[in-house]
Amino acid sequence: HFVNTAQPMSSLPSGLGICTTAPDILYLPELVFGGLVWILVASTRVVPANPLGWVMFVSLFCFVMTFLWLVVFACGGHKNSYGWAAADCAYHFLAVTFYLSAGVALAYITFLSKVALTYRIYQINISAVVFAFASTLLYFIHAILSAIRWKNF
Length: 153
Prior knowledge:
Elements: H1 27-42, H2 49-75, H3 82-112, H4 119-151
């Protein structure tokens, strides 16, 4: 008698599998680009405080949450459940919304203050804007691929 002992194919990778599968391979670039936004904005004067405080919150929140998400997936804490696939999708769409709003605010403040800033500070702010929108794009791609994975779960 033949007994089928094959395990179903996992749709949520764990361990080093997250470094080789889409969308999970995007965790590291998200961390790098989001960390650069955080560092660049923190290295300048935070004027005006309110919009740039939002940018700092978004970059720090997404950096910490993406790192925790990476650790959960790498350690296999997700147990390959449908709920984790949905949460992954929801988190990345939230990150897209946050980063898009932060990038627009940062670009607007940088544009308004270009004559009041020194050239070096202006260049740092422009770099932060570029990395904020690059992070938005990475999170958007991750969110779309996570939604596809969740749909096919």
